[in-house]
Amino acid sequence: MKAIVLSLLEMRKQYIQDTFGNIDIYLLDQILKGTYDECHTILDAGCGTGNIKQYS
Question: Domain limits of the chain?
Answer without folding.
Answer: 24-56
